[in-house]
Every structure is written in structure tokens, then in C-alpha cells.
Write a structure and sequence with these properties.
108 residues, mainly beta, 7 strands, 0% helix, globular
Length: 108
């Protein structure tokens, strides 16, 4: 898995534009046909406003529902955050053309 994401960072005295490049791997713990449980390890690097941002996350996902949750370690802040994720395919891929996936991360 590889991708780009953007959003806004609201923690702290102001808000900042967040832009990240991400990459990771996931492995089905149960049957991948059923889609009951995947574990994933991801890393990211980017910018939060004008500051460098980077870190990694460990996720447990239920592909059947497109939902997951896990822990994210942010290097500049040096702490672990809870992350809840939802994903949905927006374009089906094939042998020749790649597909697309929309993913929303929420940090409660």
C-alpha cells in the first residue's frame, strides 16, 4: 500500500495543513476471502504546517466493513495516538489499470 493524504491538524494553539506520504503492508489473519481481520504496519513522512512530520502506525482492520483502529506514534510529538480509520474503494482496478481507495483517519 502506498498513498498521499492531506488534512488539517487542529491540536495546539492553531491549525495547520497536514500533508503526508504513506506506505505500508498488511496481512490477513483470517481468510482473505472472508475479510474478518487484517493487521497492518504503516509509516508516513510529510509536513504539518512548516514542520516535518513523521511516524508509524499499527492497525487492526476488518476489511468486510472497511473499518479499523490502532495506534499511531508521531515522532515530533513523541507520543502515541489512537487512530480510527474507515476506507472505501472509489475506483475498481484491474490487470492494466490501478484502482483507488478513499480512506479517512480520525484521531479521537
Amino acid at each position: 500500500m502506498a498513498g498521499l493524504n492531506s488534512g488539517f491538524w487542529f491540536e495546539g494553539p492553531g491549525e495547520a495543513l497536514l500533508v503526508r506520504a504513506e506506505g505500508g503492508v498488511s496481512r490477513s489473519i483470517s481468510s482473505p476471502v472472508v475479510g474478518l481481520l487484517d493487521l497492518g504496519l504503516e509509516g508516513f513522512l510529510g509536513l504539518r504546517g512548516t514542520a516535518v512530520d513523521g511516524g508509524g502506525r499499527l492497525l487492526a482492520q476488518v476489511p468486510y466493513f472497511g473499518l479499523g483502529a490502532g495506534a499511531e506514534y508521531d515522532v515530533p510529538d513523541q507520543h502515541v495516538n489512537l487512530v480510527v480509520t474507515a476506507r472505501s474503494p472509489i475506483r475498481r482496478g484491474g490487470i492494466i489499470t490501478p484502482g483507488g481507495l478513499l480512506r479517512v483517519n480520525w484521531y479521537p
